[in-house]
Amino acid sequence: MVDFVADFSGNQSAKMLGTKRGFSELHDDDGGVFGNKKANLKMEETTHGETTKIIVSLRERFEKYKEDVEKLKGAARELKTLQSRKLLLDPAIYEEFMHLKN
Questions:
Q1: How big is the chain by its Cα radius of gyration, in Å?
Q2: In angstroms, rounded to a whole number, what is the distance separating the alpha carbons of residues 67 and 4?
Q3: What is the DSSP letter of 92?
Q4: What's this model's pTM, rounded to 2 decimal places?
Q5: How far is the C-alpha of 80 from the C-alpha of 7, rounded, in Å?
Q6: pLDDT at 14
Q7: What is the rounded CA–CA span in Å between residue 28 and residue 20?
Q8: Tens of pLDDT along the chain (102 residues)?
Q9: CA-CA distance, 56 to 49, in Å (whole number)?
Q10: How far apart are CA 76 and CA 81, in angstroms?
Q11: What string of DSSP letters covers 35-85?
Q12: Euclidean distance between the first and final Cα of the chain, in Å?
């Protein structure tokens, strides 16, 4: 890391801390200025792997929700049937129903 601390009061001296590498010291194995290619590929593989895990998880949750929706639809149909039967047990409603039916 290179830190430059300059005296801006007119004195041209600057204090340099740390070391600075020249371009001749950069090697292909450390990736140069743009980083290590192997590390980038590993990062992409990890990212793709995590993305796949998320997609699989979402699909599983979606299937579970679809099953829950089907159960709720069945329960709603059953409730409507029970309500209809209950209404028909009321003699006044049953009589009106039979009157409208004929």
A1: 38
A2: 64
A3: H
A4: 0.42
A5: 85
A6: 47
A7: 18
A8: 455 555 455 554 445 555 666 655 555 555 555 656 666 666 677 777 888 999 999 999 999 999 999 999 999 999 998 888 887 788 888 888 788 888
A9: 11
A10: 9
A11: --HHHHHHHHHHHHHHHHHHHHHHHHHHHHHHHHHHHHHHHHHHHHHHHHH
A12: 94
Q: How would you label 45-81 residue by residue, b for 16+ Cβ within 10 Å and e otherwise?
A: eeeeeeeeeeeeeeeeeeeeeeeeeeeeeeeeeeeee
Residue with tokens 């409730």: 79
pLDDT score for 13: 47
Q: Residue written as tokens 């998880």?
A: 57
61 to each of 33, 49, 54, 68, 77, how far by Cα in Å? 43, 18, 11, 10, 24
d(CA 48, CA 30): 24
The single-letter code of the amino acid at 63 is E
